[in-house]
Structure formats: C-alpha cells, structure tokens
Amino acid sequence: MSAPSSLPTAANAANAAPARRCAGLGFALLALGWVAAVSGAFAALAIYKATPGVLAPAPLDWPEASSIARLPGRAQLLCFVLPHCPCAEATLAELSRLLSARPAQAEVHVVIALPPGVDPSWRETAIVAAASELPGAHLTFDVDLVESARFGATTSGQVLVYDGAGRLAFRGGVTPSRGHRGENAGSDAVAALVRGEAAQHSVWPVFGCELATPLAEEAPP
Amino acid sequence: MNAAPPAAIALPLEPRSGTDPTEHDFQLDVERHLAAQLDQLRCRCDRQFAWLMACQWVIALAVALVVSPRAWEGATSSIHVHVWFAGLVGGVLTLPVAWLARWRPGAATTRHAVAIAQMLWSAILIHLTGGRIETHFHVFGSIAFLAFYRDRSVILTATLVVVADHLLRGLAFPQSVYGVPNPEWWRFLEHAGWVLFEIAVLVAGIAGAQRDMRSLAVGDAKLEATNDSIERTVLLRTRELAESREQLRGLLETTRAIPWELDAGTFQFGYVGPQAARLLDLPPEAWTAPTFWQERVVPEDRERTLAALRRVAATRADEEVEFRLRCADGRVAWVRSVVSASEQGSRLRGVLVDVTERRRLELELQQSQKLESVGRLAAGVAHEINTPVQFVCDSIHYVRGSCDDLFSLIARYREATDAARAERIDATTLRALAEAERVADVEYALEHVPRALDRSLEGLGRIATIVSSMKEFAHPDQREMVAIDLNRAIESTLAIARGEYKYVADVATDLGELPPVVCHAGEVNQVVLNLLVNAAHAIADAVRGSERRGRIAVRTRKDGDDVVVSIADDGAGIPLEVRPRLFEPFFTTKEVGRGTGQGLAIARAIVVERHGGSISFESAVGVGTTFTFRLPVHGASRAAVVASVPS
What we know:
Order of helices and strands of chain A: HEHEHEHEEHE
Strand content of chain B: 5-15%
Shape of chain B: rod-shaped
Number of strands of chain B: 14
Number of helices of chain B: 18
Mean pLDDT of chain A: 86
Largest interface: A-B, 46 and 40 residues
Radius of gyration of chain A: 27 Å
Low-confidence stretches of chain B: 1-18, 637-647
Largest sheet of chain B: 5 strands, antiparallel
CATH class of the largest domain in chain A: Alpha Beta
CATH superfamily of the largest domain in chain A: Glutaredoxin
Helix content of chain B: 55-70%
Mean pLDDT of chain B: 84
Number of helices of chain A: 5
CATH topology of the largest domain in chain A: Glutaredoxin
Number of strands of chain A: 6
Largest sheet of chain A: 6 strands, mixed
Helix content of chain A: 25-40%
Oligomer: heterodimer
Strand order of the largest sheet of chain A: 3-2-1-4-5-6
Distance between the termini of chain A: 93 Å
Distance between the termini of chain B: 90 Å
C-alpha cells in the first residue's frame, strides 16, 4: 500500500532537494543576469554621458568678420547653444553659477545657434529664456550658424573665452559630462578667466548636441 | 509568501550555563516575537518599496520626457537616451523588485534587491535631472528609507552600490564624477563621505530601533506568557468547575433526596431533580404542571402544606413539611421536605425525601407500641375485671339460692291457697308453710337479694367501664381526625392504666371544660397512656421500699385554640444529663423489659408531627416531672412546633 502523495515520504524528500537546488540556482542566475543587465545599462549611460562632443579648433584671435563686436581691453565669453539641446540647460546652469558668484569682468555673449531651416519657435525655447536670464549676458541669434562657423563651434554648450587682447584663452565645455551640472575643471577655468585670473586649463571637453555645423580642423589652443 | 525566515537580530539563543529552562523558553518566545515583528515590518517595507519604485518609474519617464525628450543634431533630433533609459532600465529595476515584494516578501534577497534598485534609482534620477544637487538628496532619502528594514546589511548593500558607482565611474570617467581628469584616489571617499555619515547615524538608529523592538518583543512575550497563564488558569478553573458541577449534579440528582424549586407566588415547580420520576413514579411534567397541587397532593394535606409554604415565603424561616402525593399508579407516597426561601422570597427551595417507608414503619411501631401497652396493661385490666366478676358471681349465686327457697315457698303458698279454696286447709299445711318460710328465711332474703343484685349491677358496671375504656383506648386508627371528648378519653385511659399506678400512687384529676378536639383518638390515648405509665414508673422508683404513695395529677384546660394536657408526678425527676435525649427513639433509662425507649418518641411524633401540637416537660430531680402537651382544637395546621426542652 503506497503512501498518499500528499504525505511527505523519504522519496519525496529526496526528489525535493534537487528541485530546491535547481530553483536556487535558477534564482541566482536570474539575479546575476539582472545585475549584469543593470550594470551594462548604467555603463552604457556613463559612456554616453562621458563622451564629449566634437571640439573643433577655434580662431586664436577674435575673428574680425564676426558680427559680435570685439571690446578691446575686456575679456569676452562666448557660449554657443542649440535652443532645443537639453544638455545646454546644464551649461547655462554652470554659467549662471559662476557668473553669480562674483561680478564678471568679462562680457558674456550667448549665441543661440539656429540651424538652417528652423522655424521661428526656436527663438522662444526654455534654453533661450534661461540664457536671457544670465547676469549681464547678451543674446545673439546665430541664423544659419554663421557665427558658430566663424568661431569654430560645433557642439552645443561650447564656451570660448577671449582675453582683453582678443586672444583665445579657453575653449571647451563647462560641464563634467553630457547634460550634467557640477563642479569641473572647465567651469573653474572659465570662472577664473572672467574674473581676470589665470586659468589652469585652456581646453576642456564639451558635452552636448551637435550644432550641425560642418566640422573644421581643430586648432591647437 | 515568506520564502525565507526573517533575519532575527543576533541574540544568544542557546541557554547559558545555569539558565533555567523556563528562562530559556522565555528567551525563545522573545526571539519568536522579535522575528515576527521584523518579518511583518520587512514585508510591509517590501510592499512600500515596490510601490515607490513604480512611482519612481513614472516620475523618471515624466522627467525624461520633459527635461530631455530628444537629442539634437542641428535641426534634426531623435529620442533622447534618457527616455529610453528611464523607460527600459526603470522597468528592469522596478519589475523584478515588485515581483520579489509580491512573492518573496520579507526575504533577505528581496530587501537587498530593493536596496540595489533604490540606489540605482537615485543614480537614474540624478542623471535625468542633469545632476541637480537637489536630486542627490534622493540618495540620502533612499538610504534613510532603507533603514526602515532595521537591517544593517541592507544599508551596507546600498552603501556598496553608491561607492561602486562612484568608484567605477571615477576610474573610467573621472571628469564626469569629480570634474577633473586625474583625481586623487580617495576622491570617491569624499563623495561617499556624507553617505557614510548618514549611514553611521542610521546604523546607530537601527540599533536603537532594534532595542525598542526587543523591548516590545519582551513585553509581547510577557503578555503572551501572562495570557497563557491566564488561559491555563481559566482552563483549570473551568475543569474544576465542571468537576464541581458534576459532583454537585451527582450529589443532587443521584441521591434519593430530590432537590426542587418553585415559585413562591404560584407554587408551581420550576425545577425538580430527575430522580423524582424514579422515586415517586411521577413524570417531570407532573411536577412542573400548574395543576400539580390539585392533582397530585392528597386533598387533606394540600392546604396545610400550602399554608406552610406561604409562611416560609413570608417569614423566610425554614420549615419542615410532610405531605402525601398521589402517584401515577394510584399509590400514595409520603414525602418530607425542608423548605427554605430565596433571599427575595420569590423562590422556595428544598430537598424532598420519600418517607413512605418510614411512615409505614412508624405506624407499625406505634401499633406495636400500642400492643405492647395493651399487653402490659392486660394483667391489670384482668385483675380489675376479675374482682367485680367474683363478687357479681357470689351475689348471683346467693340470689340463685335465695330464689330456690323463695320459689319453694311460693309453691307452698300456692298449695295452701288451693287448699283454702277447697276448704280443706289443715294444720299440717300451715305447719309445712311455716317450715318453708323458715327454710327460705324470707326476711333475710328480702333484705339481701336486692343488695346482691345491686352489687352485681355495680360489678357489671365496673366491668362495662373497663371494657369500654379498653375499647376506647384500643380505638382503631382512622385515617381522618375525628372530634372527641378529650376528658372522657383521658378518663378511659386512666381506667385501663389503673393497674400501673394503683399500688404506688393516687390520681387526682382536674379536667377542665373542653370543646370537642379534632384528633386521632387512638393516638392521643396512646400519648396519655405513655405519660401515665412513665409517671407511675417514676413514682414507683421514688417510693420503692417506703410506705409513701405518690400522686399523679392530670389536668386539662383550654388555651386559646389549643387544649393543654399536663400529667405531673412527684417521682424521682429526670436527671439533667438525659434530658436532651429524652425524645430520642430507643433511648431509655429503664431496665430491660420495663421499657423500650419508644414511649416518648412516639408521643412526640403523635403530638408534633401528626397533630401539629407541641410537647414539653419540666422536671426537678427529687421533686417530680410534669409533661405537658398541647393540641390544636380544630386539628388544624401542622405547624412544625418543635418540642421545647427547657433546662
């Protein structure tokens, strides 16, 4: 007479142990897979955010053809942003922070890059509004990326600082990664330059969307 | 589902050396309560984190769609990596945790998965919000929330995730974390410092919370132990109560005594012990029926018994009742009960006993005692009858002889008369006539024959009196009481008992005017006889060896609705030590053959129980004793008047 199947028997117990081991192993594999997937995703995100945009060479001297007037004897800061680029928000936030910390001795220009064929709404985005609120900043709408091309700017968020003699003092970004605010050597360098101090870096990677301007040969700083 | 046992706070589960088993059991109970509390808490946290992750997923998607919906290249755009990341990675983080919280709540793997996912959610949100400093507080908030698990290992897991994120990204992309391309090696510690600070605070808080939970568990264990103790006590008391009730039920329902309770207003029985059906052959419905008293109680006893019940209800003084019940088979059963009233007097209770057999034995005993009395009196009565019989016989013999002489004389006279009519009378005839007169002694006969007849009549009258007294004394017992002349009954008893006292005492009667007394005549005669015999015996003991004669005084009088009979003697008196036992059955101080010890017991039973009267005595050693009994004139209620025994 066999025991009812619902009752625990030695055979059932012997069968149950491997089943439990299999279940445990399966669960562990799933957990490992989950950890691997999540780690991979985060690694990909980190790579994406840490990958800088193209930093094209900028004119070492203030281009005479520029429609933005050069002010002799006074440092000038140019920031190129694409009106819809979400990364630019972090750039403008960093500029706002460093410009608010101490009154700038440099004149600040925010160049709103308007690629060819864009509609007028590009002039009224949140980025444009944020740029207009920067302390002492002048907005310049760069229709068809003319000025961007003159200054060799290819990536949204790119900052150029020219000293009072019209010589290029800094080129690059002011964020530590793409669309990510926070202290970094780029913003520290820009902050020092606009205060009339020496900067430790003259070049810093720029993180942002492409301005769709044809790339130019990067010139050494 | 709780697949894994909750991690209990480390405690010495094994009893320490010298720890008694009770203390060890208590510690185990504390651990059990603590583990249960933690399990409940952690399951709740798992569910809350599952919901939190779902909310974070929605919020992350919303933030991505609002802040960075698209990535641009000039005038062209595509969906931003943030949107994909929030949607896909957010789901990868949320769904497994939700599954674990649903199917493995409370498990260690679940909360560690929660810790990992939650800290990664902090990273996602920081990325999506462009590294806003405000979003970094999500890290601290998450760690604080994770502390709700009261599990330091979860905090450690969360910390490792934060440190690993900073460490790995710092190694791979240092400028993205620290803002410089070549940071010092310890910079990740600088970033993780605040996290570590918070963790230190939280770990201390967790330790405090664990202490609080342990205190709570100790309280719960004590409460449970108290409850267990109370439950055990309740069970014990309940069992004892059940046993006690069973004992009481056995006592009440399995003995021959029948407990009962009735309404003092309607006299309807509310409860009668089940043995009533067996003992009295009356079904329970007969007892509880409203017509019980009409149908089952013998009519002669009904009003008397109900009156006793009313008195108990009114006075709340216990009383004994004895009455007859008509059983289902027509048999009549005598029952006796002590009646008590409840505190409010609304219920009457008692214990009923079937005394039919006792009554039968009592009647037999009374009868035998009466026969004993008759037997003892027989010699005296025979003597009393023999004396008149003798002189009646002598007188009759004398009259008989005188009659022969007178009849012979009459024959001579007739012969002389016939001779005279024939004118043939002569001297011879006259001489013969004179001789006949001389022989007949006519003068003497004329004087003494009437006297002899008178003596005969007197003797016959005395015999008739004795016979009548015997007849009255031996009055057959009647079921019903009848009205009698008590004085006449006493005189009859005195007549037949004369043989007991005439040699030692004189009897003085003072019989007052009495109304007819309703009683059992034969039984009352028995009482008087027993008291007279006792008085005669007491006097005989006192006058033995002397010439003195004692005196028995019999007195009757009416006192209200009662008649009082007292029989006093000037005998030896009753010693103090025997007085309390005087009315006990079979108690006697007389020598063997002179008394059975039943006289006073039966007298008391007759007076008190059969007639509702009372009997008492007064005695002084060396002076004499007076017994007094009191009977209701109308033979009315059977109020249980207990014989008083004065000192």
